[in-house]
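Reviewer comment 2.1 asked that we show a complete input and output for one of the modelled complexes. We chose the 2-phosphoglycolic acid case, as it is the one discussed in the main text.
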Amino acid sequence: MRRALVIGNWKMNGSSAENEALIKGLLPISAFLAESAVCVPYIYISQVNALLEGSSIGCGSQDVSVHDKGAYTGEISASMQADLGIGYVLVGHSERRQYHRESDELIAQKVIAAQSAGLKPVLCIGETLEEREAEKTLDVVGTQLQTVITAIGDSGLDNLVVAYEPVWAIGTGLTATPEQAQDVHQFIREKLGSAGEKIQILYGGSVKASNASDLFAKADIDGALVGGASLKVDEFTKIVEAATASQ
Ligand code: PGA
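Response of the prediction step:
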């Protein structure tokens, strides 16, 4: 059986004082059965890791370099992140695809870099509103996923989380209906082949305490990647609670 997983994506938010208050507020979710983690700006990984010590909440990052070391100003390698003791790394988030022009090929290389250092990549895929309206959702998501599957091969599927995040639902307050999300999740699982049974597939895009349970009730939705609501103790706690109840 797949364990429910809820990951918070803080994006470029936080300060030393805010992080401390947020993590202290979140510590009780450590007792829930669902797996949970927060993906924080690189610069706060050490602080957040220290605050999370002794809890079961994981700490992750939001990106990774394809290079291991050298003259790549501003980049952070997977081995450096492993050295700090993080577990997860978000790869191919739509904001990276959009604002940093990350291609499917580059994203596949990032997945490989993360896996080589022992980190668990959370591969983010999803269509824009234009693509959905043109009924291209499965084509777009299929291509994004296939590029990575081809690059990592079957063995790479042993260490992967997939997050389906329709771009039109991110930060907009619009959520895919549980049925819309389930259709795409089922397609993703089938595409992953026999490994798909074990791979956690998360939904992301305006997940909140009020819609989490309905999403988690669907057979192929194993949890959530949560942006805005992950910055609020009450909201994030209720989402992890809902994931636990769905187990
Ligand atoms: P949101 O962000 O929950 O604020 O829509 C989700 C994400 O970008 O991962």
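The CA atoms of residues 124 and 163 lie 5 Å apart. We note this here for comparison with the apo prediction described in Section 3.2.
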